[in-house]
Request: fold
Amino acid sequence: MELISKVSMELFAENGFHATSMSQIAKKAGISKGLAYNYFESKKEILDQIIQSGLDTIYSNLETNPDGVLTDDEFVHFIRENFMIIRSNHHFWRLYYSLLLQPQIADSLKTLYLERAQPLLKILQNFILSKGNKNPEADFVAISAMLEGAYLLTVTTPELFDDGTIEEQIITACFKILNN
Amino acid sequence: MELISKVSMELFAENGFHATSMSQIAKKAGISKGLAYNYFESKKEILDQIIQSGLDTIYSNLETNPDGVLTDDEFVHFIRENFMIIRSNHHFWRLYYSLLLQPQIADSLKTLYLERAQPLLKILQNFILSKGNKNPEADFVAISAMLEGAYLLTVTTPELFDDGTIEEQIITACFKILNN
Amino acid sequence: MELISKVSMELFAENGFHATSMSQIAKKAGISKGLAYNYFESKKEILDQIIQSGLDTIYSNLETNPDGVLTDDEFVHFIRENFMIIRSNHHFWRLYYSLLLQPQIADSLKTLYLERAQPLLKILQNFILSKGNKNPEADFVAISAMLEGAYLLTVTTPELFDDGTIEEQIITACFKILNN
Amino acid sequence: MELISKVSMELFAENGFHATSMSQIAKKAGISKGLAYNYFESKKEILDQIIQSGLDTIYSNLETNPDGVLTDDEFVHFIRENFMIIRSNHHFWRLYYSLLLQPQIADSLKTLYLERAQPLLKILQNFILSKGNKNPEADFVAISAMLEGAYLLTVTTPELFDDGTIEEQIITACFKILNN
DNA sequence: GATGAATGAGTTTTCATTCAT
DNA sequence: CATGAATGAAAACTCATTCAT
Reply:
C-alpha cells in the first residue's frame, strides 16, 4: 500500500494523473492490477490519499508556534527548511502544482492546502508585520509570490539551481524588501 | 481551424490535455470529429499548434529592442504590460504551466519557450545590470522568481487579486530589491 | 441499433442481463464493442430501451377501447390475441419476467408496466363486472392469476403446450368461474 | 455453512445469482472469502446446495399420501398450506422462479423440481379426477396455471395481497372450475 | 478451521483515429 | 468540405478462485 502510493506519486508527477494508467502503476509496483484495487477503490482514491498524506508528512515536519514572532535568524532558518522540504519531496510538489492547474480538481485541493498551510502563512505574516513597514500587505504579496515562484522553479527546473543557492538569493531579496 | 484551436485551448486548459477528448472538442466546436482530422493530423498536433501560435501572438505583442536599456518608467510599463498579457490569455498560460510540469512534454516546450522569451529575459537582465548592484545575478533570480510566482497566482487564483493591484506590489518590491 | 437491441434481447432473455457481456452482444451482432457504445451509453441503457420499445410495440398492437364492455366472443378473441402476442415475443416476456424477480430493477419496471397494462386490466375488469357476480374482485384475482401463470408457463416451458391449446383451456375455465 | 447458505440465498434472491459476488456473501456472513471456499467448491455449488436443501425442506413438510384422494376439506387445507410454505420461504421461491427463466440453468432445475413436485401434482390430479368432469386435463391445466400465477404474485408483489386472502379466492375459483 | 493477500482473466467503458460516403 | 459509422487498442475496474500462513 505504501509502495503503491509511492510508485503512483512518481508516475503521476512524471506523466500526469490522467496519462498514468493503473497498468503502469501495477507494473512498476510489481503487483497485479487487481491487488491495487484491494487497497484503493479507484485511481482517484490513490491520488486523494497521496495528497492527504503528502500534506500531512510535510506540514508535520514544519510545526512551529504560529503565534510567536520569528527573529531574523529564525526566519532564515525557516526559509531554508522550506526549500529543503520541497527538494526532498519534489515528486509530490510537482504533482501538487500540476493538480493546482486543473480547475476540476483544484478547488478541493486548494481548500485542503490552505487549511494546512495557514499556520505557515501566519508565521510569514507575523514576521512581516514585526518589521513595521508602511504597507505590510504589499510586502506579503511580493514575498509570497517570490517564494511560490522559487518553489516552482526548484521543482520544474532543478538543474538551474543545483548549487542550491536559490534560497540564499531569495532570503537576501526578502530582507531588501522588508528593511526599506 | 481557428475555432478548433480556440476551443481546444479552453478545454485543455480547463481539464488538461489527456482528460480532453476529441469528441468534446468536436462537440464544443460544433463540428464532426472527422472534420477536426481534416485540419489536424492528431490531437497532439492541435496542442503543438496552440503552443506555437500562442507564443507567437504573445511575444509579437511585446517586441521591444532587447539591446537597449529601459528607464524606470519603461520598466514599470513593461511589467504592467506583461500582467495584462497574462490576464488576457489566462487559458493559454494555465495550459502552458500545466505542460511545464510534465517532463515528457516539458523539454521541447522549454526549448521553445526559452527561444521566444530570451529577448524579454535580456531586457530584464539589462535593466538589472544598469542598476549597478553588487550581485546582479541574485537580483535576477529573485525578481524572476517573484514574477513567475505572481504570474502563477494570477492564473490559478485570479479571484485573490481581482482588484488588479498585484503588479503594483510586485513593481514596488522590484525597486526595493534593486535600489539597495 | 435495431440489430443491437434485437440481439441483446435474445441474449438477455436466454442468459440473463448480468450474465450477458457486451462482448457477446457485439460478437453476435457482428460489430465491434465500440460501435455498440456509439448507440447506447451503457449496457443498462440497452436494457431500458428494450423494455420501453418492447412494451410500446406490444401494447400498441392491443389498443382497444378500454371503457367499452366486451361480448363473450370478443373476450375469447381478446384472450387468444394475448397468447399470440406472448408467443411471438417470447424472448421479451422471458426477459420481462426475469427482471420482475429482481427487486433492484423491478420497481421501476412495475411502474412502467402497470402504466401500459392498465387499459387491458380495465377491459378485463369491466368484462368481469358485466357478469354481475357477487364477488367480482375474487373473480378478478383468480382470473388474473390464471392468466399470469399461463403466460409464465407459455414462456418458460412452451414445449408442454406446443399444440397451442392452453388458451382454450384457460378460456373454458374463465367462463366456469364467471358463469356461476 | 448453514449461515453461508442462508445469506447467499437472500442475496441471490434479492440481486440475482450473477449480480451477487462472493465478497458480498462473505461480508454479509461476517466471514472471510477463503472460509467460504472451505465449505463450497464454487459459487455455483452454493446455488446447487441451496436448491437441493430448499426443495428438501419444502417438500418434506408437505409429504402426504400421494395415492389417496383428498376430500374437499383436505384439498382446501392442502392449498392453504402451499401458500403458507411459499410465504415463509419467499426468498427461496423468488430465487427459484428467477432461475427457472434462465434456460442454461433451468433444465437441470426443472428435472430436479419435477422429481420432487411429482407427488404434489399427483395429489392435485387425483383430486381433479375424483370430480368426474368431462375434461380433467383441461381443469388440471387451468388450476395449475392459476396456482402458478398466484404463487408468482405472492412472491413478486406480496404487498398486493398482504391481507392473505388470495388463497381463499383461488380456492373458491377452483371449486367453481371443478363443480361444473 | 480461518484469513486475506494475491492473481488473472474477464468485465464495462473510452477514445484517438480511419474511411466510405 | 464535412459527416458519422466503425474500429481496435487500451483504459478502469470486478471477481471467482487460490494459497501461504
